[in-house]
Amino acid sequence: MHNHVALIVVALLILIFGLFSNLSERSPISGPMFFVGIGLLMGPLGINVIEVHLNTEVVKILAELTLIIILFVDASLIRFSKLGTILAGIPARLLLIGLPLTMISGTLVAYLLFPGYNIWALAMLALILSPTDAALGQAVVKSDRVPERIKESISIESGLNDGIALPPILLCIAVIASGGSAITGDGHWLKFMAMQLIIGPIAGTLIGHVGGRAIDYATNRNWMGSIFHQLAAISLAILAYSCAEIFHGNGFIAAFFAGLMLGTKIHVVRERVQEFGEAQGQLFSLIIFFLLGLAAVPAVYTYWDQSTIVYAILSLTAIRIIPVMLALIGAELNLYSKIFIGWFGPRGIASILYMLIVISDLGVSGYEQLVSVIVLTVLISTFAHGLSAVSMSKQFSNH
In this model, does residue 326 exceed pLDDT 50? Predict the structure, then answer.
């Protein structure tokens, strides 16, 4: 079978799942679950009717584009008037306390379970699995039962921790590739990480605000049509990402801030931007999850052993939940809300993207087990968080 068969299957799956998409939002079956499951069924571990030879660079570009659009759209849904209060509250605790503790604890657990790897490789694994993915728990961030404060906090955390995790991941890759020499010298990496975290928000804010105001100006003069209102989502997201990267900033943080600071004041225009961006992000995301089941899982499942399984489970539970609980000490939240935030730290597109970056820069040889841990963690997360999203959201009625 040729790759065009996979395209036909993906097209059919999107149509079939779309017919029942409203029902899926009220059921435990999510889009990523459905596409991963069909990928597993169609691939070598199932009936083996599709043979796909993946180009890592192409898939990496697709994953980058997916993450950029998702970050932009998710941020555009956050109410700017409440931004200061939101950032100073739960998200600040999660990003400044919870995320570093997750990274550290993930590295320590990896050190105990995988003694054959050096500390930089183990830290890289922990960092890759530290970002969360709100797209995997869409039933959570869209549920009317979940308090707005919690939904917004989860969205902001997932939007910013992707970009925060990337600079240290790149540092680990550089150290491994150079045999340790990359961390010696004149503080280049400290300057690099500072630039990443400063230029990204600045570039995103400028492009999001100016771009949105330009759209309003053209719309009010009847220069701009509705189709290009929709296309603006992709345009602004890519512009923010690319401009930040050119000036050594973090493109993912820039894409998030571009959506957060989107300058359009016309309600219908903002809706069009969001709807089209969400549709494209959903499309690319589902393709990534289909490829995960079709090709990634069959490529690494032979490396799954007891240590791999234990780490994947701990990554989604104790390594995530305990730091979140510690970070939220003193926050005005009940116990269920804290557990909810801790549990809904799914691993998805960002972890897959960072895994592809590692494969592209370091190759797979020698890192097979670590790559298999990432794939297994994302696979478990897809089903565990998908199955629990609707039922756990409903429980807020009882708390």
Answer: yes
Tokens in use for 162? 């992707």
- R_g (Cα) of the chain, nearest Å: 20
DSSP string, 352-387: HHHHHHHHHHH-STT-HHHHHHHHHHHHHHHHHHHH
Contact at 8 Å (CB) between 256 and 204? Answer: yes
d(CA 278, CA 234): 10
CATH of the domain at 17: 1.20.1530.20
Query: Which amino acid is it at 69?
Result: I
pLDDT in tens, 20-63: 888 777 777 888 899 999 999 988 888 887 777 777 788 888 88
Contacts of 118 (CB under 8 A, 6+ apart): 176
**Tally of structural domains, the chain:** 1
pTM score, two decimals? Answer: 0.87
Q: Domain of 257?
A: 3-398
Cα–Cα dist 160/176, whole Å: 26
Helical spans, DSSP H, in the chain: 3-19, 21-25, 31-42, 56-76, 83-88, 90-93, 99-113, 119-128, 138-141, 148-178, 188-220, 226-246, 251-260, 267-291, 297-300, 306-316, 318-327, 335-343, 349-362, 368-394
The pLDDT score that the predictor gives to residue 1 is 46
Closest residue by Cα to residue 176 from 357, 352, 55: 357
Let me know: does 248 contact 198? Beta carbons within 8 Å: no
pLDDT on residue 74: 80
CA distances from 338 to 38, 90, 325, 345 (A): 34, 10, 6, 12
Q: Are 3 and 53 in contact (CB under 8 A)?
A: yes
Contact at 8 Å (CB) between 392 and 204?
Answer: no
Question: Residue 303 carries which DSSP code?
Answer: G
